[in-house]
Fold:
Amino acid sequence: MKLPIYLDYSATTPVDPRVAGKMIPYLTEHFGNPASRSHAFGWKAEEAVEEARANVAALVNCDAKDIVWTSGATESINLALKGAAEFYKTKGRHLITVKTEHKATLDTCRELERRGFEVTYLDVGTDGMLDLNRLEAAIRKDTILVSVMFVNNEIGVVQDVAAIGEMCRKRGVLFHVDSAQATGKCPIDLRALKVDLMSFSAHKTYGPKGVGALFVRRKPRVRLEAQIHGGGHERGFRSGTLATHQIVGIGEAFRIARLEMAAENERVRALRDKLLKGVQRMEEVFVNGHLEHRVPHNLNVSFNFVEGESLIMAVKDIAVSSGSACTSASLEPSYVLRALGRSDELAHSSIRFTLGRFTTEEEVDYTVNHISAKVAKLRELSPLWEMHKEGVDLNSVQWAAH
Amino acid sequence: MAYSDKVIDHYENPRNVGSFDKSDGSVGTGMVGAPACGDVMKLQIRVNEQGIIEDARFKTYGCGSAIASSSLVTEWVKGKRLDEAAQIKNTQIAEELSLPPVKIHCSILAEDAIKAAVADYKKKHAVEETERKKVA
Structure:
C-alpha cells in the first residue's frame, strides 16, 4: 500500500490509464484541427470528437447534437446561467438557486445580480435536501431559470432532479443542473428528466482536467447568448478550436463510466460503509447530510471537539479535505455545513472523505486506524473534550468571541 | 498550506499538555477563544510564593498554529515573574513560529491566554488577601 492514501476523489480523480492511453495519439499523431474540413488530419480529429460526443451523450441518454464542449463545469455553468439570463431577460430577470451550490453557480449568480438580475438563494433542510414546496413558493411570474446541483460536492447528497424538473417545466421555467459530481455515480436519463441545461466535468470522472460539456436541449429548444466569440464553433454557443485530445479523454472516461458504474458503485458503497462503521466506533461522530439520498462515494463527518484543520495536519498519510477554513481571515467554516444548520463547532470539525475507483479495502482499514488514533490524540489536547467529559454543556458557556 | 518546522515540531510534540486543578490557590487559569471561531485555548500557570511561574499547562482546540502557539508560550512563561509573563507579545510568538499573516490570530489568542491566566491568578490572590485581612 502506498502512502499517502488518496481519499479526495470529489476534488479530482486520477485520469484512468485507459483514458490517458486513448488521448495520447491525439497529441502527437492525430493532431489535426477538427475544424479543418479540407484534409485527412482534420477528418480524423473530427471523427474522434464526434465519437466522444456520442459517448458523453450515451452516458446521460441524450442526443449527441445537444452536447457543447467547454473547458470544464465552471465554464458550462457560466454559459448556462449567463447565456440563458441574457437571452431571456426580456421575459424576466429572476433566477432561483440553492445556498449549498458550488461556487461556480453562486459566484455566477452574484455576477448576474451585479448585472441587474434578481436571485433567490433557497435554504436546505438539516439533511441537505431541498424542500420542493419551498422551491414552488419561490417561483414567480418573472422567474426565468432554476439551477440546482445533482450531487453536492461536499456532502454528496442527491437532489430530486426529476421532481424539480417536472415543477419547472409545468411553470415554464428553464432548469439547469450542475452534474459535475454526478456522472458515473448516478444514472442520468435526459430523455426522461425535464432538464433544459446540464453541466459536466471530465476530471471528476477519471478524465482529464480542462474539459467539460454543456447539454443544451434542442427539443424543446433552449436558447443561450454565447459568452465566447470567435469562429462560431459548437453551434455558435462556444467558439474556440476544440481540444481534441481532451475531448477524446472525456469521451473515453464517460464511456467507461457507463459500462462500469453499476459495479463500481456497489464496490465503493461497501468500502464507504466500512469506513463509516469504523469511525463510528468513536464517540461524538456525526454524519453531515442525508445518508440515504447520497452518492456512495461520499462520507462527510464531524469529529466533535477536534478542529478540522488540525486533524488534517495530523492525518498526513491520508489526503482528505476539511469543512473548516481557518486559513481565511474570516474564520468562516464551510458555508454548506452552515446552510445545514450545523453549529460552527461541528462545521469546524468536519472531514470529507471521498472514495473512488482506485480505493482499496486495505486503504480504508488503514484510514480508520489512523484517524481514530489521531482523533484520540487531539481530543486529549482539546479543552472542549475535557469540559464535555466533565459534563459541562458547551452551549451554556459564555465564550469570548474574537 | 505549508507550516514552519517549528510549528510542526510543537504540533507533533506539544510541550506541557494537561491541566492543573483550577481551584488550587496557586493556579491561574485563562480560557480564551470560542468554539464557533474554531479555536479555544486553556492556559494554566502555577505560581510560587515569590510570584514566579513555576509550571504551566495548556489544552487547545484549534488549528496546528494555535496548538503550536500555546505550546510555545507554556515554555516561555516558566521561570518568569507574573508581570514579565503578561508582557509577552503576540508578535514575538508569531516571529518565533514564522506564522503566516492568516495565522496571526493564533498568536494573539496565545497572548490573550497568558494575560487571562495572570489576571485570574491575581484576582484569586486579591480575594484571598482580603479574606485573610477579614479573618485577622
Q: What stands out?
A: Residues 244 and 332 of chain A are 41 Å apart (CA to CA). Residues 244-279 of chain A form the longest helix (36 residues).
